[in-house]
């Protein structure tokens, strides 16, 4: 229960508590299998975990923000138009455009060809989430926002609000989901995937500083190397212009409160931005009611982010930049001994030189230092007690650099624009694990240290060839080399005996081509096609670190090789400006060789592992994605989007029983419907429906999880000047559905409601 003093200080908190109590319905039409439907009672968030730290600072800060007086903002300054290499600006196919001033959102993208250009001219299919949609989304976390694109999904159905960081991997178009992301996530061109495990700390990416999110769901290794096997998602920061202040302050049920702020200032040629975000939540009971025991409680979590960026126009042609940030996240998996914590610091520097005749040069340097800690419990079947099973400490760091050159256009039977670049990255980390065996003995394993270093580098070149305005051809080629070295495992037993295993250094390489075609026979009709080769090198986590989910222990494999992908896509986009209608359909076919998967073993390993990471033969992932973006009227817009995926194991040496099985954690059907009303004088409101089909938890397809559909809503209204009141509800009808079945059935989030205040672009 919230402290009385805080309730008096922040009246909005009381209002939300009353609001949540009034609208919380009972569970209906649960999205679980038939057996679970008969056994799971309604899920209500009715208690607060006693071991959660109370919000002692958040409520007074919210009250202070609500009580502040906002000054009128001056007219916005003109923004520099991105360099499009002489091509005329055109509207990109964005997810939402609801007012005249939003028309410029998404004009240019940078991810499809590593340079700014109109999205409708890029041969690859790109989905853009512009700033207005980011601001209006009912979702609380970044991963939930990205998942509103049906082609994008995280490994598990739970959001990062309660999901362990190691289960936050991203996949696009259903390409073999796992805790390790098979897609690359960038922030202004800098990779943010964890250097040790490849997963993404979504909560380290505050949305107040974002201008747009670009999703390219096709093999991107020809431009970005390892990690871009299934595509690229890039978060693009807002420009630093004028003097601005943005802030969010929200509070909701499950005692979830958030404060976020972004400030911008300019001093002549120097400009700077500072972002901060604080979030604290009690979470919800994650174990299904049918299996919940005495040890199960809520899933509390908290995080803090602080990011800074400075840019300097050294000359008219040279821009220098620097950035740094701190992030900390604490999570509890629902029991006292199931915890995770992340601490990281990142830094970067860059330079952009524009020359009259030699093109543009962009240099980026970046690095990260981090520590991931995780405790896992040993829990009996009735979940009546728990004991500490393992405690892991994983320090890791990485350093990298990239140099990209975009040349001026030149003519040879049409117009050519060359882009070339090189990059290098060093990643190192160690998993230090203390084990607590259930039956202590002199030979019991007590300490396990495993880790190593991975060096990687690549060089690429791309030519965009435009014989005529109606036709564009693209060709890209990249060579990558990576080396795993210093791999070592050290085992110490209770009697003091130590065994050390050193793994052989290995060097591998990969050539990644990509060909693309864009044809525009009519002004409103665009045809696209591309074929590509992509790859992903195994992460240090997959090579060396074992992990446990529920009661299932999965072993690492130091002999893993790279995953490799052949793929193609073809699509059509039709746009009618007079009707405000844009329709897109894209078909895709991917063949994934040697995918790294968690394979169920016929016999457990000596350490009790029942699964192990292996390169599993071959999988075929084919499907189609479609979307309709329609401006119904001046205030109304609608979006319908759907992705169908057919993910099947086609070859499995040593595990023939897996052939024909559906890939785990990979639903065949995903869809989104969004309806938005926007009138600045009345209200801005969004209703979205998210539908996910049935899927399997495991590779043997023995643990099914039913499909589900949830409705989210949000609304905001300007109070005065730049201050807005805002409210949002995720899972409006409190739909109960399974999120995982790894030894214990876990649930997706119930109804989560919040209300708060927003300050936008104040001077």
Automatic annotation (TrEMBL):
Which membrane topology describes this protein? Answer: Multi-pass membrane protein
Q: Where is the TonB-dependent receptor plug domain?
A: 119-232
Decide whether keyword Signal is in the record: yes
Q: What PROSITE patterns does the entry give?
A: TONB_DEPENDENT_REC_3 (PS52016)
Question: Does the UniProt entry include the keyword Membrane?
Answer: yes
User: Where would you say this protein principally sits, based on its record?
Assistant: membrane
By sequence similarity, the record places it as follows:
Belongs to the TonB-dependent receptor family.
Annotated localization: Cell outer membrane
* Taxon lineage: Bacteria, Pseudomonadati, Myxococcota, Myxococcia, Myxococcales
| SUPFAM superfamilies, per the entry | Porins (SSF56935)
This protein's UniProt keywords: Cell outer membrane, Ion transport, Membrane, Receptor, Signal, TonB box, Transmembrane, Transmembrane beta strand, Transport
Q: Which organism does this record belong to?
A: Myxococcus virescens
Q: Annotated region Disordered: where? A: 75-122
**UniProt xrefs under PANTHER family:** COLICIN I RECEPTOR-RELATED, TONB-DEPENDENT OUTER MEMBRANE RECEPTOR
Q: Indicate the segments forming the TonB-dependent receptor-like beta-barrel domain, all copies.
A: 325-732
Please identify the protein, giving its name as recorded.
Outer membrane cobalamin receptor protein
């Amino acid at each position: 229960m919230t402290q009385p003093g805080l309730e008096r200080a922040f009246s909005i908190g009381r209002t939300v508590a009353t609001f949540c109590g009034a609208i919380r319905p009972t569970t209906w039409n649960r999205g679980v299998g038939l057996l679970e439907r008969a056994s799971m009672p309604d899920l209500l968030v009715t208690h607060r975990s006693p071991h959660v730290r109370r919000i002692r600072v958040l409520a007074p800060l919210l009250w202070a923000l609500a009580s502040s007086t906002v000054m009128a903002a001056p007219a916005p300054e003109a923004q520099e138009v991105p360099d499009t290499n002489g091509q005329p600006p055109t509207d990109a196919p964005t997810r939402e455009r609801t007012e005249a001033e939003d028309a410029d959102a998404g004009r240019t993208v940078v991810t499809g060809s590593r340079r700014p250009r109109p999205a409708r001219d890029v041969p690859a299919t790109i989905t853009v989430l512009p700033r207005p949609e980011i601001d209006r989304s009912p979702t609380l976390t970044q991963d939930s926002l990205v998942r509103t694109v049906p082609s994008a999904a995280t490994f598990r159905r739970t959001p990062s609000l309660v999901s362990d960081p190691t289960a936050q991997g991203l996949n696009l178009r259903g390409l073999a989901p796992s805790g390790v992301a098979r897609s690359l996530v960038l922030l202004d061109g800098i990779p943010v995937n964890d250097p040790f495990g490849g997963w993404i700390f979504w909560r380290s990416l505050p949305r107040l500083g974002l201008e747009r999110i670009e999703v390219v769901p096709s093999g991107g290794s020809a431009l970005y190397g390892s990690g871009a096997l299934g595509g690229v998602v890039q978060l693009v920061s807002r420009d630093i212009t004028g003097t601005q202040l943005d802030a969010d302050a929200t509070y909701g049920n499950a005692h979830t409160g958030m404060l976020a702020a972004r400030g911008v200032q300019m001093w002549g040629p120097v400009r700077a931005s500072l972002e901060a975000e604080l979030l604290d939540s009690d979470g919800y009971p994650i174990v299904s009611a049918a299996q919940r025991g005495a040890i199960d409680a809520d899933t509390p979590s908290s995080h803090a982010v602080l990011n800074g960026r400075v840019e300097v126009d050294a000359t008219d042609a040279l821009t220098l930049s620097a950035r740094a940030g701190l992030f900390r996240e604490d999570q509890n998996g629902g029991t006292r001994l199931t915890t995770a914590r992340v601490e990281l610091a990142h830094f970067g520097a860059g330079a952009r030189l524009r020359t009259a005749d030699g093109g543009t040069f962009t240099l980026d340097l970046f690095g990260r230092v981090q520590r991931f800690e995780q405790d896992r419990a040993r829990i009996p079947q009735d979940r009546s007690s728990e004991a500490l099973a393992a405690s892991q400490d994983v320090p890791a760091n990485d350093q990298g650099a990239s140099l990209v050159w975009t040349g001026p256009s030149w003519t040879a039977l049409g117009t050519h624009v060359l882009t070339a670049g090189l990059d290098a990255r060093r990643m190192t980390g160690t998993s230090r694990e203390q084990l607590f065996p259930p039956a202590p003995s002199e030979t019991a394993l007590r300490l396990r240290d495993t880790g190593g270093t991975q060096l990687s580098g690549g060089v690429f070149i791309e030519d965009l060839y435009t014989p005529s305005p109606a036709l564009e051809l693209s060709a890209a080629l990249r060579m990558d080399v990576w080396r795993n070295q210093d791999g070592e495992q050290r085992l110490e037993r209770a009697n003091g005996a130590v065994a050390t295993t050193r793994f052989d250094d290995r060097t591998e390489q990969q050539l990644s081509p990509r060909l693309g075609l864009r044809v525009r026979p009519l002004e409103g009709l665009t045809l696209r096609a591309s074929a590509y080769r992509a790859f992903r090198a195994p992460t240090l986590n997959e090579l060396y670190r074992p992990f446990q989910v529920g009661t299932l222990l999965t072993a690492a494999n130091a002999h893993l090789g790279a995953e490799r992908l052949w793929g193609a896509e073809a699509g059509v986009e039709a746009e009618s400006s007079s009707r405000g209608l844009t329709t897109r359909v894209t078909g895709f076919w991917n063949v994934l060789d040697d995918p790294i998967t968690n394979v169920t073993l016929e016999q457990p390993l000596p350490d009790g592992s029942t699964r192990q990471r292996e390169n599993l033969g071959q999988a075929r992932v084919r499907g189609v994605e479609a979307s309709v973006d329609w401006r119904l009227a001046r205030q109304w817009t609608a979006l319908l989007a759907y992705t169908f995926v057919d993910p099947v194991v086609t070859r499995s040496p040593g595990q023939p029983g897996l052939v024909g099985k559906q890939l785990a954690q990979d639903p065949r059907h995903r869809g989104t419907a969004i309806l938005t009303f926007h009138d600045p004088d009345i209200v801005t409101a969004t209703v979205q429906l998210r539908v996910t089909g049935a899927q399997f938890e495991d590779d043997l397809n023995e643990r099914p999880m039913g499909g589900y559909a949830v409705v989210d809503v949000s609304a905001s209204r300007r109070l005065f000047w730049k201050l807005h009141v805002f409210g949002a509800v995720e899972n409006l009808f409190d739909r109960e559905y399974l999120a995982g079945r790894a030894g214990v059935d876990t649930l997706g989030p119930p109804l989560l409601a919040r209300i708060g205040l927003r300050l936008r672009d104040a001077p």
